Amino acid sequence: MLSDIEIAQSAEMKRITEITADLGIDEADIEPYGHYKAKLSEDLYTKLADNENGKLILVTAINPTPAGEGKTTISVGLSDAMRRIGKKTVLALREPSLGPVFGMKGGAAGGGYAQVVPMEDINLHFTGDMHAITVANNLLCAMIDNHLQQGNELRIDQRRILFKRCMDMNDRALRNILIGLGGKANGIPREDGFNITVASEVMAILCLASDIADLKERLGNILVAYNLSGEPIYAKDLGCTGAMTALLKDALKPNLVQTLENTPAFIHGGPFANIAHGCNSLRATKLALKLGDYVVTEAGFGSDLGAEKFLDIKCRIGELAPSCVVLVATIKALKYNGGVQKQDLAKENMWALEKGIVNLKTHIENMHKYHVPVVVAINRFATDTDEEVKFVRDFCADMGVEVSMCEVFAKGGEGGMDLAQKVCETIDLCGENEFKPLYDTHATIKDKVEKIAKEIYRADGVVFTPQAEKAIKEIESIGFWDLPICVAKTQYSLSDNPNLLGKPKNFKITVRDARLSSGAGFVVIYTGDILTMPGLPKAPAALNIDCDNNGNITGLF
């Protein structure tokens, strides 16, 4: 059996100019990065402004488990299957972060015969967007410390500097550091730290900005510190937003590649969903909607994180309305939620399946709260028995949702044609879109957190620590109470405890802190022990990756 990278390396890719020609894009609007990837011009969206928008399909999932759910694989396979049944479809995904690529998760280009290519490029440096975001972020940090060194005209309180440096790698040693050591010439000593690039507010801004002007304004609105009088200091006060914009002007342009079956695929922007808002760029999604009759996109982790943020943040800011939600699960993952250990998941266990399917039920119910139809996609394994499959089919029928058994990993688009048909039929059947976000942004910050916790996580309530109470009060005092909420929470459970599987009961969410992302336009709420700079596992994926003397990469997945 071929590995993911072997399948990708044997693919017959079309030149990117053929992909753009199929979409009707003029050569003047293409900026090629080699033969198989390109950025699209700043002017293209304006040229397509009069085009009618296609239908937006969001792919999300149950809470992730060690068994894997294959959300990206389903997204890619569904887009290929939609093309096979004659629908003009475009795919829009996030860029992978190097942290997971070299860490525990591996790459994020799909799997098997449902991948985006060139897989190695996408998972590694791609078009340099991550580098540009990292440098722009760190330019702002350098400007802060230089301002302190050069007399501190803004009277920045060095104990209350909020903005951190970043790098696109898992490195726990950089979470908390001391800088400015070694004497007067080396700066002002202070505590600092690093976030992973995909948790940087600059990443969120790039993914939510509508154009260069909006990008520059949002960068200027980043809250970086408070002064000695307790007044906020923003990036624009340091005078570097023009330079940051210059670093990001090309990164703002969406990247276009293709699937193994030559379906056009936008891969642009990559915020994590457990510590950020978890969606690809708004610009890429909007451009895809102008180019395709259907657009398949995904949001990170389970629907309690990525989908909630997609629907309550991205759709609100971008004035988007999804026509359908595809909810991905596996029978193995449902049994894991029912208490089966990973090594035993291949064995039939109806008792555990009945117990664990409550996780799927909760995610279906949650998505219906946004008034959007749901189709369940079961990523099928050879070990799934007929009785287990029948149970899941009957369960979904009782809930009034379509379900499809998918084999896109093994068969590509052919293995997702039933899903594609059911998604299209569901969209046609539901007719006019009735999408509505979960909460009103004009509620208080605490009320919005309570709404998410009770409606989506199914918590009994929320406990705010004294630090969180203080942070929220401060955010509201400077006028940013009416923003959407971005919860940083474990992806493994509906609760803030990763060990509580299925549908946890009798628990409260504990909010330990809050931070204003005024440039991105949301308030980050921290729960549990979630970290914005991950560490590498004991056996990182980097140990398996190699490059031979001819430049051929192996071990990437």
Strand content: 15-25%
Q: Taking Cα atoms only, what radius of gyration do you get, to the nearest Å?
A: 23 Å
| Poorly predicted segments | none
Q: Output mean pLDDT.
A: 95
> Which percent bin holds the helix content?
25-40%
Q: Give the helix/strand class.
A: alpha/beta
Biggest sheet descriptor: 12 strands, mixed
In total, the number of strands is 25
Contiguous helical run count: 19
User: Shape from CA axes?
Assistant: globular
Terminal CA distance: 14 Å
Q: Explain this structure to me?
A:
The chain is an alpha/beta fold. Helix content is 35%, strand content 19%. It is built from 19 helices and 25 strands. The strands form six sheets. Strands 1, 2, 3, 4, 5, 6, 14, 15, 16, 17, 18 and 19 form a twelve-stranded mixed β-sheet that branches. Strand 14 (255-259) and strand 15 (264-267) form a beta hairpin. Helix 7 runs antiparallel to helix 10 (241-248), helix 9 (212-220) crosses helix 10 (241-248) and helix 13 (331-337) packs across helix 14 (350-368). It is globular, with a radius of gyration of 23 Å. 54% of the residues are buried. The model has no long low-confidence stretch (mean pLDDT 95).
